[in-house]
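A note from the maintainers: we've had questions about how concatenated examples are separated. There is no special marker in the raw files; a new sequence line simply starts the next protein. For clarity in this README we add a label.
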Amino acid sequence: MAGTEEQVWNRNELMHRIVSHKLLAPAAHDMMVDAPLIARKRKAGQFVIVRMRELSERIPLTIAGGDPIAGTIRLIYQEAGKSTMEMGLMKEGEFLSDVVGPLGKPTHIEKFGTVVCMGGGIGTGEILPVAQACALAGNRVISIVGARTKELLIVLDDVRETSAELLISTDDGSFGFHGFVTNLLQQLVDRGEKLDKVFAVGPVPMMRAACNMTRKYSIPTEVSLNPIMVDGTGMCGACRVTVGGRTQFVCVDGPDFDGHQVDFDELTKRLQAYRTLEKEAIEYWEKHRCLLEESHS
């Protein structure tokens, strides 16, 4: 039964209204969602698990910001699979069935001194709250962000606002430095900057390369990991990683870890475990996309 208008309204009160939803770059989205309790409690580095509908896949997304007074949280995400592609169709005023959080341990922030916050691709949105928290703690924040092309760079104004210095790279040289974020990090070292801490968020190869470089200079480096995750409470074990030779669960022990201790080989293999199923899901999505677009129109 559809239920009375009052019953439908009561159900919607338990759901999470999309306050705004806009495209930042091709396949990159910026969504503001009603979640008052999470907005009041969330800290930099934490995440939520989202379900669009009751039977939808559970998706972990980093909390990119929030307004405790307005009761909203900011989710910056990229269309990477069937579920996030479908989420990209959702419009302002629609409701997410579940938004659970804040989950994970907050990023440890203190006054380190000079801090580098590195973001690669969609990771720029995820490093933003860390950069903001570092600045509030009295650190001198140098932000390094990069993407494959100029069109894929996101939230530059937000990052610039919280940074003492912002360095930008693109793989193809279409904007900023022609190269990788690690090249810019090396430039900081070469010019004599004393770097007290590095935070890196982005694709695994980027985080791995950053850690390989900072290890040579004994610069403490934290990375935010993104393995496959199911329940987000440490019960399923799907998000296990090896850090310093010990098994850790990203959802409860992380998502931040000492990058110099992470087994990136294992992490890479685990991320590839469901590639065949992911490909099949995307093919299904592409075949039925027109019907789903109609449901959100």
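[label: protein 2]
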Amino acid sequence: MKTAVLSEHSRQFEQLRFAYPVVSRRSRGLSLGLNVNPDKVCNFDCPYCQVDRTVPPRDTRVDFDIMLAEIDGLMALAASGAIWLHPKFANTPDHLQRLNDVAFAGDGEPTTYARLGDAIREVHKLRLKHKLPEVKIIVLTNALLLNKPDVQKALSELKAGPYEVWAKLDAGTQPYFEVISGRKLSLQRVVDNIAECGRNLELTIQTLFPTIDGADPGDAEVLALADRINEIRAKGGRLRLVQVYTTARRPAQDRIGMIKDGRLDELAALIAGKVDVPVEVYYGRHWETSD
């Protein structure tokens, strides 16, 4: 399998402005992304982020109707199988030639988008239109706004069909959280928000461990993160999975690197040994190579 299939996650496809298809490690197939933050504004500044905020955005706001038309078209291509004829996906292995989800992700924090609930509702209608009732709607979030009533209302639209919420938790201690989020924000707030949301919706924890200046987070930090996961569960948060992964896309910062497979297994094992939640590992990809 060519590495490029899994490492090429461009948020631009053909002439589309807000929708984009990628073959995703964590989705184990095709994920149709919706970039609801084309202005690149985010309330985190993660050093491993692939978004280069020194480059002006192409769009500064979402055109709702155009976004829906774009995702409608991509879902039609995926439903018919025609998308696998596109040169970008020509080398996709057979077992990955399946549509798994429509994911609200993009160049910022999706829960800051004022029409998130409307968009989820419309994507659900398209899911039925294209006879894809099994396709999930996924929302990726850094969890900072999960305590907001309007965000909770928007996410409640997910219950209309199969869904997942992937909540970011990359740290177990406050000092490392400030490094990995790029902000002086409260880790406790994020943990409490995940627990609160998890009492209403089942969540997946997404944990990205990079190297920073050649060093990974270390065993103590990872064990502290496991304690945070247990805290979330003790507060009633329902967790279906913990995703442990490392970089697969070229970060905007050169000081960020990829943890090798064996070491990533070791870190994941530390978490698995302390939490009663399934843990899955997704290995990194060298973005410098194309095959």
